[in-house]
Amino acid sequence: MSIAQLPGQQKAKRILQHALSSGKVSHAYLFTGPPGSGRMAMANAFAKALFCTSGGDDACGHCLECRKFDHGNQPDLHVVEPDGASIKIDQIRELQRELSYKNIGTERKIYIIQQVETMTLQAANSLLKFLEEPQSPVVAILLTDNGQAVLPTIRSRTQWVPFMPLVPHDMLQTLSQEGVPQLLARAAVHLASGLNACREIIQQNGFAEMRNVVIQLGKDSLTRFTAGMISAQQHVFKTELGEQPQLLLSMLVLWYKDMIHFQSGRHEALVFIDQVDWIGKHAFGRSADGYVKCMEAALEAGKRIRAHVSPQLAVEQMLIRIQEV
């Protein structure tokens, strides 16, 4: 995948594509941002563009080097990740040995270090010496969740590339391109931070069924209290879905939020887009403040479950509270 094809991260893209188009590629970059923001995917796309022989601000995808990269046959790319809980000095020494060999058909060597903040002090000092005396055809791409946790001496010798949390719209677009069902993707992107987490949620057994149960429970909680109690008992706590009460409550929050979206005319923001007809008929049955209180009731139920209250009891008390709103 090329830099341009990756979702979001416009600032990171501008920094990297300017370096490529201007020919002013730094010897070291520090990609810093939260989990799920696509740092590794961007590191791979940037490395591919650096190996590409067509020039320009991105990989062409067609030249020999791009094809080698896509097939995992790029011997001048090296990836280091923690061995256990940390990156150790032997790993950095091995990397330096690999980088000392003559290039195989490419102009530069590239190494990517994941979770660079986990380096032991000895490993960090060994890497620092390498950064202080960079070999011109070598480019380092260091990845971290927290740039401030990286040694200041290493930070000062790298170009920072900031990554922001991916917004739901960007994740939804990518998941749709991957063929993920639209209705499941619309829910997942509001429940997880980052594409990988979204994919994990969607692939969970029962996620589609949970969505259907939330729709029924959401409707019953607003219009038929007794039916809501029965739905919770029969479709949640007497099934395997009862093992994921926090997911249920998080999706219920999205259901009540959809009512506010509809009231505000933001129909494109609806998560449960297939229920727009029902939502349109019932959304104005309560005020926006009333739906906020419904959301607060669901969040409070989640907090009580984390405090070891029975999930069924917490959900039933939530339904009672929603009736009183």
From TrEMBL:
Native species: Paenibacillus solisilvae
Superkingdom: Bacteria
GO MF, one example: DNA-directed DNA polymerase activity
Keyword Repeat assigned: no
Keywords in alphabetical order: Nucleotidyltransferase, Transferase
Pfam family, one: DNA_pol3_delta2
Matching InterPro entries: DNA_pol_HolB, DNA_Rep/Repair_Clamp_Loader, P-loop_NTPase
EC number(s) given by UniProt: 2.7.7.7
PANTHER family from the UniProt entry: DNA POLYMERASE III SUBUNIT DELTA, REPLICATION FACTOR C / DNA POLYMERASE III GAMMA-TAU SUBUNIT
EC primary class: transferase
Name recorded for this polypeptide: DNA polymerase III subunit delta
